[in-house]
Amino acid sequence: FAIEQMKEILNRYDSSDATQIKQEFLAEADRLYHEDADLCRRIGEFGAELIKDGASVITHCNTGMLVTAGIGTALGVIFTAVAQGKKIHVYADETRPLLQGARLTTWECMNRGVPVTLICDGAAADVLRRGKANCGIVGADRIAANGDVANKIGTYSLAVNCRAHNVPFYVAAPYSTFDFSINSGDEIPIEERSSAEVTKPFGVIIAPEGIPVFNPAFDLTPAEFVTAFITDAGIFRPPYGKWENLKTP
Questions:
Q1: pLDDT at residue 249 above 50?
Q2: Domain ranges, ordered by start, for the chain
């Protein structure tokens, strides 16, 4: 989204207007920064309404201040609920293979004094079965017009597990994440990353040399698994596809 905004600026000027282009880039970057911070604030305020005092929330990947200009999207909802005085416990999926949940989400929660327990991705279903978590909340990299969600690999598994245990599964994202030019998640290209991320994470060999690896960076969660979308324009529930109140660029 931000890159497209910058391309529009570039197209308005002759390549010789380097100084003017630079000034416009900086001004647009500053505008986007403050806009994103405000979007995160609104997402947090709307989403906090869904989080009850005493809730235990399971998350996936990182969706906080380290990846946004504000308090975050899914984590922003949690942090806002905590700021309102609610007692919240977070179960953070480690998020293989790059461990964003283990390395980033746990740090953010601990840094803000939010109780957090790290779990391996494969433990999510058991955490839900035991009733330790009563809500799932994630962010999104891209959302199709029908509500299908592309997000970090493992998101779909968490959504399925939440459905199986009758636990609400929320997706928190700003308007810029919605792509109304595509009808469904089937149209979203999924990047496949290096096999070394799985066989040799952080330089440590953990699998036989030459083993075939399937390592998609993202997966697709069908809209039917999403209890509600938490956006800067409010909360959207099924049936999805009517986004009239959602702000567009």
A1: no
A2: 2-9+19-236
